[in-house]
Amino acid sequence: MKLKSVVFLLALFAIGTAVNAQEVKIKKEIASVDGKEYVRVGDCGMFAKECYISNLEGDQLILIKPLEDPRTPGTYFQVTFMETNTKVEIKKTIKPFIKMLYENKIVTEDGKLNPQRVKTFSEKYGNQISLKK
Questions:
Q1: Are 70 and 132 in contact (CB under 8 A)?
Q2: How far is the C-alpha of 85 from the C-alpha of 79, rounded, in Å?
Q3: Measured between alpha carbons, how far is 18 from 117 in angstroms, rounded to an integer?
Q4: How far apart are CA 97 and CA 121, in angstroms?
Q5: Nearest to 56 by CA among 43, 37, 35
Q6: pTM strictly above 0.85
Q7: Which residue, 51, 58, 65, is CA-closest to 30?
């Protein structure tokens, strides 16, 4: 009886995880979440000085600049939400960052930034890594 209960709970957990997990793919500068086109991503390679995330029409919404943290290896990024001039510092790479944008509904279905959601995002994730030096 205990084994059946454990197997049942594990199956529920696996189903719940699969339902909540979003898959982000970037192909030809289009980031898709679960197969649905979401935003355009400029050249955000490791050595890019800056890159932009735009709506599907090409209007630039978010500027991403890499910054270096001399205390620890790796890079962090300054993200500027252009319409609101809100800045956030994060240590995420582009795919996890796009997933965060999607989960927090930062870009609306009509390709605009949601200012209230940007504010909430900034309060929730707005690490000031540069101030901790």
A1: no
A2: 10
A3: 25
A4: 12
A5: 37
A6: no
A7: 58
C-alpha count within 13 angstroms, C-beta hemisphere, residue 4 = 1
pLDDT at residue number 2: 56
Element at 5 (helix H, strand E):
helix 2-20
Edge-to-edge strands of the sheet including 86-90?
A: 24-27, 30-33, 36-41, 51-54, 60-68, 75-81, 86-90
**For 7-39, what is each residue's pLDDT tens digit?**
444 554 545 444 456 788 888 889 989 989 999
- d(Cα 80, Cα 59) in Å, to the nearest integer? 14
C-alpha 21/C-alpha 77 separation (Å) is 24
